[in-house]
Design goal:
The chain is about 10% helix and about 50% strand. A hairpin with a 2-residue loop joins strand 9 and strand 10. The protein contains two helices and 20 strands. It folds into two domains: about 100 residues, no CATH class; about 170 residues, no CATH class. It has about 290 residues and is mainly beta. The N terminus is likely disordered. It starts with a helix and ends with a helix. Strands 9, 10, 11, 12, 13, 14, 15, 16, 17, 18, 19 and 20 form a twelve-stranded antiparallel beta sheet that branches. An eight-stranded antiparallel beta sheet has the order 2-1-8-7-6-5-4-3.
Length: about 290
């Protein structure tokens, strides 16, 4: 219910967007071409006062704060962002609506350079070792070895991960020679699992220690990290888990397929560490960044 209310509020704000201003303080001016919602095709101007930490939107006072390259807008009393500006890409995003505007900024203040660990990134080479597709139709179980034109046993994959000191967290399982951590692109036959999320939107959950990191983003995405176990999911859609054995990792991927027929796809895979692989540093880096 809380998620539904927040979504509705996001939509209402997009619906009524028009030029607004704030009083006093050092301002960032954002001029945005709206690309989604009823305001699509209009140009809106937003004045963000980072000195007072406020932005007035149609009579609603939102809290505004700078975190790395993002400007987060929250409803007073709420911890999760309602909308955010990305000063690197120039996008205005609603948390449940995705991209809603392309913006140009004036009077940019220096970025808030919070202390952060050095970037940790790398990839592992993986091979699919088994696959099943299960479904149910008219009370009878449907079982298949895969989808036509989809993944097969012995197909090659790469697992790519990136925890930058300033930017987007990325974890992706994809065909080799792709660059999934540079821009978001989803195709179940190309990258069955990809999480590319601004680090500032990830929130820590308890318990939390140097050897256990639990993070989520608005209950839409979650990740559980220990030095020898990685679990990540978009609940109700896709899940991935890797467990270390020796210098290799066992992997399991699941995906729910919805349509006229409902299936769950499961494949197992095996990953081998490659040159430049820093996956052992992943948990420590995430702990340092989000503690």
């Amino acid at each position: 219910m809380k998620k539904l209310i927040k979504y509705a509020m996001s939509f209402s704000l997009v619906f009524f967007l028009f030029p607004v201003s704030v009083i006093a303080g050092e301002l960032i001016e954002a001029k945005c071409t709206m690309v989604a919602g009823p305001s699509k095709g209009t140009i809106q101007q937003f004045d963000i006062d980072l000195t007072s930490g406020k932005m007035n939107l149609n009579g609603i006072s939102l809290n505004a704060r700078s975190l790395n390259h993002l400007i987060l807008l929250t409803v007073p009393g709420e911890s999760e962002s309602l909308m955010f500006f990305d000063r690197n890409s120039g996008e205005l995003n609603g948390d449940y609506l995705g991209k809603i505007g392309d913006c140009e900024f004036k009077n940019i203040l220096p970025l808030n350079t919070q202390s952060a660990p050095s970037s940790v990134s790398g990839k592992m080479q993986c091979t699919i070792t088994g696959q099943k597709v299960l479904g149910s139709m008219l009370g009878e179980t449907q079982e298949h070895i895969g989808f036509q034109g989809g993944w097969d046993v012995n197909d090659s994959l790469e697992l790519t991960y990136s925890v930058p000191s300033n930017g987007d967290f990325c974890l992706s399982l994809h065909i080799p020679d792709r660059q999934p951590c540079t821009n978001y692109y989803y195709d179940p036959d190309v990258n069955p699992f990809t999480a590319l999320i601004p680090s500032a939107l990830l929130k820590s959950r308890t318990p939390f220690s140097e050897n256990l990191v639990l993070l989520d983003w608005n209950h839409v995405f979650s990740i559980h990290l220990t030095p020898d176990d990685i679990r990540s999911s978009f609940p109700g859609e896709s899940h991935i888990r890797l467990t270390q054995y020796g210098d290799s990792w066992d992997g399991v991927f699941t995906r729910f397929v919805y349509g006229s027929e409902k299936f769950v796809q499961v494949f197992t895979f095996d990953c081998r560490r490659g040159s430049g692989d820093n996956i052992q540093k992943l948990t420590k880096s995430m702990y340092t960044k989000f503690k």
